[in-house]
Design brief:
The protein has about 230 residues and is of the alpha+beta class. The chain is built from 8 helices and 5 strands; from the N terminus they run ααααααββαβαββ. It folds into 2 domains: about 90 residues, DNA polymerase, domain 1 (Orthogonal Bundle); about 120 residues, Cytidine Deaminase, domain 2 (3-Layer(aba) Sandwich). A 5-stranded mixed sheet has the order 2-1-3-4-5, sandwiched between helices. Strand 3, helix 8 and strand 4 form a beta-alpha-beta unit. Helix 2 crosses helix 3.
């Protein structure tokens, strides 16, 4: 148990003395798990759990079935851990939905933790008011991205439903390389043209890679592309 650890190894004591932000990822996870097992201390269990799921960043994608399949993780521990993860997700969403987008980097910061770890392409629509504040966000499509599956009708229907003045298109590249394909560029131009007809500005199309992003608008990729 946490309380049975020597004081210098006890994450609870360390958090009290130096602040919760001083804890490592393993120590934070150990606080949630609270107890180890007959073969492992709680810190060893936390370390192994992170190793087996692929690292701290993968906690956002972990599910109940995966957790209870791990040695030393029973139903109660799994549910407690999932509840902490869900609280983090909800707090993040609540905070960032009050953000104001003034440049592509703000958009990247808004979506990076959600999108850069995904194993499939996700197409996210962000609807903004005329002050660039978020009105709505919605995943429109999951899978291989092209214009035939990401339909303008669905995108602009969502935008109109909240009287959006502007929209931002976002999608991820699971390869980690954020540079756009020709289809990404043409899709942006098509949406921009349709947006002009409907008086809804396509503010940008942001492509998320591994710790990087690409703004199609900022780089003016489509200026010489023709449909």
């Amino acid at each position: 148990m946490i309380k049975s650890l020597p004081k210098e190894e006890n994450p609870r004591e360390k958090a009290i003395a130096y602040g919760i932000e001083s804890l490592s990822n393993v120590e934070l996870l150990a606080l949630v798990l609270r107890t180890g097992n007959k073969n492992e201390s709680v810190l060893q269990l936390a370390q192994r759990l992170l190793h087996e799921i692929g690292g701290f960043s993968q906690l956002v994608n972990v599910n109940y079935a995966t957790l209870i399949s791990l040695k030393g993780i029973k139903r109660a521990k799994a549910i407690e851990l999932l509840s902490i993860i869900e609280i983090g997700k909800r707090l993040r969403n609540h905070t960032r939905d009050h953000m104001q987008f003034n440049n592509p980097y703000h958009i990247y910061e808004y979506v990076k933790n959600e999108m850069m770890f995904l194993k499939q392409e996700h197409f996210l629509l962000i609807c903004l008011d005329n002050k660039n504040c978020v009105l709505k966000r919605k995943i429109i499509f999951i899978g291989s991205l092209n214009m035939s599956v990401v339909t303008p009708r669905e995108v602009f229907k969502e935008a109109i439903s909240v009287s959006s003045a502007k929209i931002v298109l976002c999608h991820n590249h699971p390869s980690g390389d954020s540079h756009p394909s020709n289809e990404d560029i043409l899709m942006t131009k098509q949406f921009e043209t349709l947006g002009e007809m409907m008086a809804i500005e396509v503010m940008d199309h942001i492509i998320i890679g591994w710790n990087e992003f690409f703004s199609i608008k900022a780089n003016q990729c489509f200026k010489d592309k023709h449909i």
